[in-house]
Amino acid sequence: MHMRIGILEGDYIGPEIMAEAVKVLKAVARKCNFDIELVELEASGKAWEKYGKHLPEQTLELAATCQALLKGPFGGPTEEINHPKWAGIERGAILPLRKHFNLYANLRESKAFKSLIHLSPLKQEVIEGVNVLIVRELTSGIYFGEQITREVDGEREWADVEAYRESEIRRIVITAFKCAQQRNKKLTLVAKSNILKSSLLWREVFNEIAKEYPDVSTDYQHVDNAAMQLVLNPKQFDVIVTNNMFGDILSDEAAVLPGSIGLLPSASLGESQFGMYEPIHGSAPNIAGQNMANPLSMILCIPLMLYYTFNLPDAAALVDDAVDAVLTAGYRTKDVFSKGDDPAKVLGTVQFGDMVVAQIEKG
Ligand code: IPM
Ligand code: MG
Fold it and tell me: pTM here?
């Protein structure tokens, strides 16, 4: 099998964690006998320096020739937020990438790693066994809605519009039902239907589709309650489906349950097998260039890509198992090191990647 994969390495820790993910991908390719072709795609900070744009047209054209994209975090330091190199990168590059490829379904799974369970902000008995998948709508809603700036009674009034078409709700809800069928067959819709009109449409469409999936049990929570339930009793969830903004917020909350946002990858998918795979965290300028970043969020994009784009569940499992084995053996990057861990097993970004590669070669 031949795979053509686009690489958007991103900013600050982006290239460092991407290098480890690529190393892992090459190791699994050797082991499972597929060949990979990597296509460097220019975007974010470096593209701005060269072309004055965060996402040049030719990048999109080249990306369209790939079967999957691996994307590192885009963006700069908070203090430089108004510098043109970084300003507007979200609306100039991140959102358009999702929209251009119609990647409307963003899958973010938070699961407790047994060996890191003590890092969770929750009590051990609450976090143990947690595995929740948030299916976030990614190409519509308030992040893509009309923006209004006007003057009312002599003062500024700015507004963002939350609008959903039923077809946009239907396709993401169907994705979520399909995910639930592959997992523990429970799907929770999260919205705010006691207040928002758009949420009422989500409920109507959800209920219509639920009839086609009688094997999946369903429930509904308002978003404020869901935010509370995620820390009170996260085990009650299997799959959550929700709109763009609520999914953005709840997925950060869910990401930290296992102990660190640096552990979680995500998959952005559309109608075809094409997918974009990226960590859910930012570019961490404060630790860049020091061989310190945790490469796991990026490395764990590899099994997601092998599973969703290339239909290779065994190859995906090889990476997941290797990561589990390395963590269980006590190896860690500094960010997830804690009292009681063996200081001799604290590794840099590169050395942690090497351990995962060695484990894949053994496996
Ligand atoms: C995410 C990020 C992005 C989002 C930002 C950087 C635009 O927070 O992927 O969750 O809001 O979607
Ligand atoms: Mg976010």
Answer: 0.95
